[in-house]
Amino acid sequence: MRTLLGEGLRQGAVGMSSGLTYTPGMYAGTAELVELCRVVAQYGGFHAPHQRSYGAGALEGYAEMVEIARQSGCPVHLTHATMNFGVNQGRAGELLDLVDRALADGVDLTLDSYPYLPGSTTLAALLPGWATEGGPQATLARLGEPDARERIRYEVEEKGSDGCHGVVTDWATIQLSGVRDPALAGAVGRTVAELAAEQGRSGTEVFLDLLRRDELATTILQHVGHEENVRAIMRHRAHTVGSDGLLVGARPHPRAWGTFPRYLARYSRELGVLTLEEAVARMTGRPAARLRLDRRGLIAPGHHADLVLFNPGTVRDTATFEQPRQPAAGIEHVYVNGTAVVRQGRTTGARPGRALRRTDRGTRAA
Ligand SMILES: [Zn+2]
Fold first, then answer.
1. 305 CA from centroid of ligand 1 (Å)
2. How far is the CA of 233 from the centre of ligand 1 (A)?
3. How far away, in angstroms, is 52 Cα from ligand 1 center?
4. Ligand 1 centroid – CA 79 distance (Å)
5. CA distances from 125 to 23, 85, 131, 152, 222 (A)
6. Domain range for residue 239?
7. 104 and 204 fall within a common domain
8. Which of 171, 192, 236, 281 is the most buried (most CB within 10 A)?
9. What is the 121 CA–ligand 1 centroid distance (Å)?
10. Could you tell me the distance, in angstroms and rounded to a whole number, from the CA of residue 308 to the centre of ligand 1?
11. Distance, CA 112 to ligand 1 centroid (Å)?
């Protein structure tokens, strides 16, 4: 793994991500991640974990990621840094205290978040890890076995599945956002609880049968966020904007289209949680610095002319949960590498962008 990772970094990767709520990522132990992060650090990259839990074990999960950074010397960027589910209501301050202690100790740490309450993932992600062993075909076969179904029901409904952050799944919070099988299209937009009530069956039965019929392809919105946590985290000095958007499905999470204008409109102009300058820094200079982008993220002599010209009085997100595929309003001109790609609100068709790769001196165009 270390050899493969080094190869990827030499080819220009900016760092390593990990998905520790998901199989097979969840099988990686702390010591293994420390070893890999040592390689990332050698090349000047960073670790971007989706950590083990955003629910019952959220704080322990964040502490583990910080510990990996301390032991390996590798910078860490806490991806979609949320404190979700009932167990974490009002507890953002505990996460931010952990972040402040790490920063005070010299750990190179940043984090990002999206400005919405629900999360989004796949329906299959809620399954316990053991139930997905052996890959999709083995999983589908298991979903037809009565013993396995009962064991899954117990973990999801009573114990708290590791695939659901160790929290008991409340079916009223699980809303379908996309299906592969057209015959299931009527279920999109409904919660598993609603479907269960309608069909006179339990939430788990509906859940398991949807997974089988849709061959694990169903995507969901998970209504588990807290407004006060979202606001507290976005104010932190190490915070950057991230959409965590999934672009697939009939009704994907609107954050894929609305995240950036929503920070400017709702959280800066309307609510005043951030000043306009703070909001802009979180989506330009700060992430560019984390990615070590060479001469990007600031408007300065000698920098690449990547510019978004928006109207601060009218910029806003128009993407909604009902109609998520909506572009932002109030963005008038966009330049990439000095070439207009949006002019007076319309795309020009120009594609002057280039893939950027990591080098020892920052990024360069591929
Ligand atoms: Zn994630």
1. 31
2. 17
3. 10
4. 7
5. 8, 16, 10, 12, 11
6. 2-117+225-298
7. no
8. 192
9. 8
10. 27
11. 11
How many angstroms is it from 19 CA to the middle of ligand 1? 7
**CA 68 centroid distance within chain:** 20
- CATH of residue 253's domain is 3.20.20.140
Of 94, 99, 98, which is closest to residue 110 (Cα–Cα)? Answer: 99
Domain end, chosen from 298, 315, 333, is at 298
Mark whether 40 and 144 lie in a shared domain. Answer: no
Q: Are residues 110 and 251 in the same domain?
A: yes
- In whole angstroms, what is the distance from residue 223 CA to residue 112 CA? 19
pLDDT in tens, the chain (366 residues): 999 999 999 999 999 999 999 988 999 999 999 999 999 999 999 999 999 999 999 999 999 999 999 999 999 999 999 999 999 999 999 999 999 999 999 999 999 999 999 998 999 999 999 999 999 999 999 999 999 999 999 999 999 999 999 999 999 999 999 999 999 999 999 999 999 999 999 999 999 999 999 999 999 999 999 999 999 999 999 999 999 998 888 888 999 999 999 999 999 999 999 999 999 999 999 999 999 999 999 999 999 999 999 999 999 999 998 899 999 999 999 999 999 999 999 999 999 999 999 887 777 887
What is the 358 CA–ligand 1 centroid distance (Å)?
23
Structural domain contains residue 351: no
Could you tell me the distance, in angstroms and rounded to a whole number, from the CA of residue 51 to the centre of ligand 1?
Answer: 8
80 CA → ligand 1 middle, Å: 7
Rounded to whole angstroms, the Cα distance separating 204 from 207 reads 5
What is the rounded CA–CA span in Å between residue 112 and residue 95? Answer: 13
Which is nearest to 124 in space by CA: 56, 189, 214, 63? 214
Q: What is the distance in A from the centroid of ligand 1 to the CA of 129?
A: 16
Indicate whether 274 and 256 sit together in one domain.
yes
- Give the separation between CA 212 and CA 153, rounded to whole angstroms: 15
Distance of CA 304 from the midpoint of ligand 1 (Å):
30
Given 190, 222, 254, the domain boundary residue is: 222
